[in-house]
Amino acid sequence: MRQLSKTNAWLPEIFNDFINTEWMPRTNATAPAINVIENEQAYIVELAAPGMNKQDFSIQIDKDNDLVIKMEKKSENESNAAPNDNAQKAKNVRYLRREFAYSKYQQTLILPEDVDIKSIKAKMENGILAITLPKIVVKEEPKVCKEIEIA
């Protein structure tokens, strides 16, 4: 059995033993889960981003017409946000273990040729960033039957 000291030095060690296991390995990388959905009108890219806000993301089309998704999340102590009650409370907190104070992520997706780049939209809702990539609408010409005269 572990000896408990008056300094609470045991607490981080317990967390290490609990978190760094086969069923819950410890990782430092931030790579959100992504779903890509296709229907007749569009492709939809869903990115799992719990705890993130739309201000944490940057979405752009690069010079190669690829979709670039960037995410950067800093803790309130590190951000340039205006001070508020939560930020003041966070300054008075002593963390025993802190792993989600900063996250950074970037992914580049090669777009299919049938994406209407000018009509791409994104929305953030319930921890999911959804990017809708509408397909270019191809107008079908009506089929014409025509009799060809033989000369």
Descriptive account of the structure:
This protein has a four-stranded antiparallel beta sheet, with no helix packed on it. It has two helices and seven strands; from the N terminus they run αββββαβββ. It has helices spanning 10-19, 85-91; strands at 34-38, 42-48, 57-61, 66-74, 102-110, 121-125, 128-134. β6 (121-125) and β7 (128-134) form a beta hairpin. It has a domain at 30-80 and 105-134: Immunoglobulin-like (Sandwich). With 151 residues, it is mostly beta strands.
Short description:
The protein is mostly beta strands and 151 residues long. The protein has helices spanning 10-19, 85-91, and strands at 34-38, 42-48, 57-61, 66-74, 102-110, 121-125, 128-134.
Examine the secondary-structure arrangement and name the CATH architecture of one domain. Answer: Sandwich
What distance lies between the first and last C-alpha atoms, to the nearest angstrom? 103 Å
Main sheet characteristics: 4 strands, antiparallel
CATH class of one domain: Mainly Beta
Strand order of the largest sheet: 1-2-7-6
Rg result: 25 Å
What name does the CATH topology of one domain carry?
A: Immunoglobulin-like
- Helix percent band: 10-25%
Structural class: mainly beta
Shape: rod-shaped
Count every helix, treating DSSP H or I runs of 4 or more residues as helices. 2
- DSSP summary, beta strand count: 7
- Average pLDDT figure: 77
Helix/strand order, N-terminal first: HEEEEHEEE
Poorly predicted spans: 1-12, 23-28, 78-83
Strand content: 25-35%
